[in-house]
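Supplementary Text 2. Reproducibility record for the structural model of the 316-residue chain.

All settings were left at their defaults, and a single model was retained for analysis rather than an ensemble. We include the record here because the model underlies the residue-level annotations in Supplementary Table 4.
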Amino acid sequence: MALTNLQLAQAAEQMHREKWVYVRGTFGNVVTPSLLDYKCRQYSSNAAQRALLDTFHGRIAVDCIGILKAALWGNMAGQGRYQAAQDRNDAMSHAAAREKGPLATIPRQVGITLWHEGHVGYVVDVSAERWQDWIFVDAFSSRVGLRRMRIGDYPRWREWFRDTFVDYSVEYQPPEQTEDVPGGGGTIGDETHEFHATYVANRDIQGYAEPLWRGGTRPIMFEGQTFTIDRRLNRGEDYFGRDAATGIWYHIHSEKAWHVRDAEAEKVFTVSRGDTLWAIAVKELGDGRRWPEIAALNPGIDPALLRVGTVLRIPA
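Retained model, structure tokens:
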């Protein structure tokens, strides 16, 4: 099945949210000493930063074009699968593209590739009126990591293009116009939806999880994404909850779009000296590659710097 432009944007957002790291030549690989040995032999730029790269052990790495490769090859949990027939660098991807142009002509569509010589990024949010205010994610460098920023804030971009390995059939769905601030109509809470519960997305959703005010962040949701509400309200037939971690209000009334996670099925783990998310995932979930699930369930933690005594929620 082809990778859609929406899936590519969702993947880039997930990588940024999970704080993946940059290692040149990677495409969704868990960082290990043997991987770094290989990548340092392959690229002198990695060898020059080996001391920094050694601090990335257990995390998932990509480079700029590796964002596409990780999504395309199914490496979203660090599987590191490789497809030689689809392995090309940014220049090859740009040259192969049949649809491309200057930034002033960029289509309003997520998943579009931004390009300048030697680098690419991926558009993830096109809800703003001006293209300069649209949001992209890229893997910039080992010291900077993955960035999420406005197109206009990185003036080096020269062109856009549609990658030939991506299906661009998913059109942009504009957000509904809502009130400037939450409130009005209905009552606080209802008999169906739980307060202080963890909600889980049942499927990929574009343009469904909306804040209740114009100009706010409009995250692209993906299947399995969670948020925990700390405030709720009803507006007529619509039900909303505010994510405790981000402050974003989500439209969660639809039973088809969300379900409530069984809180009793979750476990907790207290961080001790020397613990890493990879080691905790091995101990509690049986697979170190599942560490992003723990990170997603505990917004606000730094996966690279766990504090002793922190109590982590562990997925069922």
